[in-house]
Structures are given as structure tokens and as C-alpha cells.
Specification:
InterPro entries: MPC (IPR005336). The protein is mainly α. Helices cover 77% and strands 0% of the residues.
Length: 106
């Protein structure tokens, strides 16, 4: 019971935005993970790049903010990983499209 009370009253507990921000932010990596089932042609390279930059910046923020927000950092690390995977799928699809176009031109 003391552990639950300590968590409830902590500076990163459910009474704060340090808890609820990362909790709702998990929708980003979950949506990206679901999108891995879609064809790579449906991926926006620009948006995926922006999401990679966003998560990189906020990983740093989560590390330096006081109190340190590990929950937010793990969320953005997960999002960064999934977004980089999506970006690699998009790049491979773009290369494949270019190769097919070159073969058709020959």
C-alpha cells in the first residue's frame, strides 16, 4: 500500500502531466506499429522524417527535464525505432520504384 501511495504522490505520478503526457503519447508508436502492416507506398517520407526528429528531440527533453521522465523517454525511444523502420521501408520502396522505372526506360 505504501508503494502505491508513494507512486500516487510522486512528482511523476498520475496527478501530474509527467504521467499523463507520456501515457497518451503512446498512441504515436502504437499507430506507427500498426502502419507497418500497410504497403510502403502508403508511407509519407516527409512525415516519417519529421516524426523521427520529433522523437529524437523529446528523448533528450525527457532525459534533462526535472524530474527525469523515463516514461516519456521510453515512449519516444519506441516511436523513434518504429519510425526509423518505417523510413527504411519507404526508402527501399523508393529505390525499387526508381529501378523499375529505369528498367522500363531501357
Amino acid at each position: 500500500m505504501n508503494a502505491l501511495r508513494s507512486f500516487w504522490n510522486s512528482p511523476i505520478g498520475p496527478k501530474t502531466t509527467h504521467f499523463w503526457g507520456p501515457t497518451f503519447n503512446w498512441s504515436l508508436p502504437i499507430a506507427a506499429a500498426i502502419d507497418t502492416q500497410k504497403p510502403p507506398e502508403a508511407i509519407s517520407g516527409n512525415m516519417t522524417t519529421v516524426m523521427c526528429l520529433y522523437s529524437g528531440i523529446f528523448m533528450r527533453f525527457a532525459w534533462v527535464v526535472k524530474p527525469r521522465n523515463i516514461h516519456l523517454m521510453v515512449c519516444h525511444m519506441t516511436n523513434e525505432t518504429v519510425q526509423l523502420y518505417q523510413l527504411s521501408r519507404w526508402i527501399r520502396a523508393q529505390r525499387g520504384t526508381e529501378l523499375k522505372k529505369e528498367e522500363a526506360d531501357e
